[in-house]
Amino acid sequence: MKILIVEDESKTGEYLRQGLSEAGFVVDLAKNGTDGLHLAEQGDYDLAILDVMLPEMNGWEILRTVRQQGMQMPAIFLTARDQVEDRIKGLELGADDYIVKPFSFAEVLARVRTVLRRGRSGTEVTSIRVADLELDLLRRRVSRAGKRIDLTAKEFGLLELLMRRQGEVLPRSLIASQVWDINFDSDTNVIEVAMRRLRVKIDEGQKVKLIQTVRGMGYVLEVPEP
């Protein structure tokens, strides 16, 4: 899943980005309101974490703007302002939660997972399933035919991307940007190595192979035709 953080305090922003990345999320960080709004409008984010007091445009204005554009991206306000009126304003603008600084990362992660569990439509979205392969978004677990498979955070993110876009051939450049948050470098084999390890864990010993390489194009996860 992909998260946008808009936070002008460098230490706080980097702390959140590192923690959420290690938890298996793809994270973008903006340090002012203008850049944050631009990313929110351009990126397909599952959640935004917005500081209220930002340079150029505050968090309330960012959320108000994206809501006016019809975007239903869930949002959590993260701020030092602890006034009840501020909390009410944020919630009335369509925020899903409101966390007051200082905070513990464990609390932020729990709130993030709770909001993501509700999903954009407000309904429970907790797992993705393709054939007998199941990915649990909340507990960050994967199983196939009922047998648990242990994955690293990057492997989990890679599998989640493939399953969410089942049947779609994903080029290496897209995988690099979505999972590793880097530009694709043709001289590195990091994606091939990760895909090979993931394929061993998911498909080895299975009659039906779900992860396929499309030569010269990329990778796809799908149930092959008989």
Mean pLDDT: 86
What is the domain total for the residues? 2
Spatially, the strands of the biggest sheet line up as 2-1-3-4-5
Give the biggest sheet.
5 strands, parallel
Apparent shape: elongated
Give the proportion of residues in helices: 40-55%
Terminal-residue CA separation: 31 Å
The CATH topology name of the largest domain reads Rossmann fold
**Helix segment tally:** 8
- Strand percentage lies at 15-25%
| CATH 4th-level superfamily of the largest domain | Response regulator
Q: How many β-strands, per DSSP?
A: 11
**Unreliable stretches covering 5 or more consecutive residues:** none
**What is the alpha-carbon Rg in Å?**
19 Å
CATH architecture of the largest domain: 3-Layer(aba) Sandwich
CATH class of the largest domain: Alpha Beta
Sequence of secondary-structure elements: EHEHEHEHEHEEEEHHHEE
Give me the secondary-structure category: alpha/beta
Task: State the main characteristics.
226 residues, alpha/beta, Rossmann fold, Arc Repressor Mutant, subunit A, 2 domains, 5-stranded parallel β-sheet, 8 helices
Structure report:
The protein is of the alpha/beta class. The chain folds into two domains: 117 residues, 3-Layer(aba) Sandwich (Rossmann fold); 95 residues, Arc Repressor Mutant, subunit A, CATH 1.10.10.10. Helices cover 40% and strands 21% of the residues. The protein has eight helices and eleven strands. It has a five-stranded parallel sheet, sandwiched between helices. It has a four-stranded antiparallel sheet with strand order 6-7-8-9, with helices on one face. A hairpin with a 2-residue loop joins strand 8 and strand 9. Helix 2 packs parallel to helix 3 and helix 6 crosses helix 8. The longest helix has 14 residues. The mean pLDDT is 86.
